[in-house]
Amino acid sequence: MNKYLNLKGFRKATALAVLALILGSSLSLPVLAASTLYADISANPSSGAVPLNGVDLTATVSGNATGNITYSFDCTSDGVWEKVIVTSSPAYTAVDLCNYSSQGNYTASIRVERENLAFQGTTAILAQSQATPAVDLKANGSDGPLTINTNTPAVLAWTSSNASYCTASGDWTGGKVTAGSESTGNLTNTKTYTLTCTNTGGASSADSVTVLVGAQSTLYASLEALPNTGTAPLTGVDLRATVTGTATGTINYRFDCTSDGTWEYTYNGIIDNPKTIVDACSYSNPGTYITKVRVERGQAVPAEATAQVVVSSVSGTQDLSLSKLARNLSDGTGFQEVVAADPGEVIEFRIFITSTGSQPATNLIVKDTLPDKISYKGNLKVDNVLVSGDILNGLNIGTLNPQQTKTVIFEAVVANSANFTFGTTDLINTALVYNTTVAKTATAKVQVVKTSVAGATTIPTGIFSSAYFSFFLSLIATLLLTYFLLLKFYLGNRAHAWGVTGALETAKNRMDNLLPRDSNKMAEEKLAKMIAEIKGKEGI
């Protein structure tokens, strides 16, 4: 604040005093007080970085002068008043009057006038140089380049100084606050993010970060409950979780004994793999319980797995029934315990395994022993679903609950004719199903026929196949029987006409001529019986 003495008021008071002395002491004159005028002046802000705009100039008037006040404001004291206003108010502020675009020390002037008095003062304003903005942009806390798994996000975070606003460019857009963070969302390819921050003077600074996208980490889990069967109350069930996949780093495990949404056991940031919890779960009541594990590792999608625990109400035993059938695929026969085949034909075997005990039959292994001259062909199925196991060395079909059945099918090939002698060869095929408690076996028979037909090493098909040959023999036997019945009728009618003995001898001779040698004995027996019947009827 600057204050100056009001000289006009002082001079007026002095002149009156001198006049009083001249006129003498007898003259009575009034003593007048001198008028005064003062003002406090200020600038707001009085300093700042360029461009320093919108500076307010304020004048506050005091003194005993009266009347309206004229306020005049000069931002740079260059003699040009930027604002002049007349008002009765003892204080006035010229809002946002002055702007300073260049660095330097400036002087602003304010003049107030009232009752023919005037007061003028100045105030200093400092326009400082503008600081350059600074910005720091990171992805997942890294300046980059940063590599993340495909289809996963990164978090962008940034700070700045000496900046009034920021703008995003590159693989993101829009205005941004001067400090903050946001997610990129799930990424499937490389992205580059740039942030530019600017001050009020127009100066700016930028920073960028690149996020590279790599292969998706995989994560898988499996869970075992040991034991997985028992009678109520079942206690001391161990849980064992195994983690696989390409994800790396420490593992978070969550275990739930009943899949009710409550994790009974939690382990964070450990390296155990597999992870086993001894005596983890107990079950008071009978029922089937599902245990669960959830694993988290690195940036991979969390994985879950379950295992079943069956709790029975009473103790029981494991037992199995096993049966085996075969069919000739080459001939299109049905399944049977004994199947006929020619050398080189394909046989399909079907094994039926049923749990017949009161307890589930666990960890069952099925094995089939092929005899010599039959070789494994493949097409292995369990419950009509192709599998890649090994039926010859043992195929694990898991657990069968009471009364549950599983069917195992596979194909085999009979050796070629060079491996067989003439006649019928029985090939016995044996199936075995077992676990640590029970074992059962079953067999199926393949009868391979090799005949000595001229020019052939196997029984030909068509009209001379074994089936057609049997039918032909049956037909001949039927015709012979009919012939005997007709002959009997004939002899019964002719016995009196030309003597029984002669008729029978004639019939015997005819039969000898009709039947082959191997059938004579049978025919003679039938004729003897007929003779006895005729004699009985005729009373001979």
- Detail the poorly predicted runs: 1-14, 18-29, 454-465, 495-501, 514-519
Helix content: 10-25%
How many individual domains? 5
Strand order of the largest sheet: 2-8-7-4-5
Instruction: Report the CATH architecture of the largest domain.
Output: Sandwich
Overall SS class: alpha+beta
Broad shape: rod-shaped
Main β-sheet description: 5 strands, mixed
Q: Determine and state the CATH class of the largest domain.
A: Mainly Beta
User: Quick one: how many beta strands?
Assistant: 34
| CATH topology-level fold name of the largest domain | Immunoglobulin-like
Task: Please explain how this structure is put together.
The chain is built from 4 helices and 34 strands. With 540 residues, it is an alpha+beta fold. The protein has 5 domains: 7-128, Immunoglobulin-like (Sandwich), CATH 2.60.40.3880; 134-214, Immunoglobulin-like (Sandwich); 220-312, Sandwich (Immunoglobulin-like); 320-460, Immunoglobulin-like, CATH 2.60.40; 466-538. Strands 2-8-7-4-5 form a 5-stranded mixed β-sheet, with no helix packed on it. The chain has a 5-stranded mixed β-sheet with strand order 10-16-15-12-13, with no helix packed on it. The model is unreliable at 1-14, 18-29, 454-465, 495-501 and 514-519 (pLDDT under 50).
Describe this structure in a few short sentences:
With 540 residues, this protein is α+β, with helices and mostly antiparallel strands. The protein is 16% helix and 48% strand.
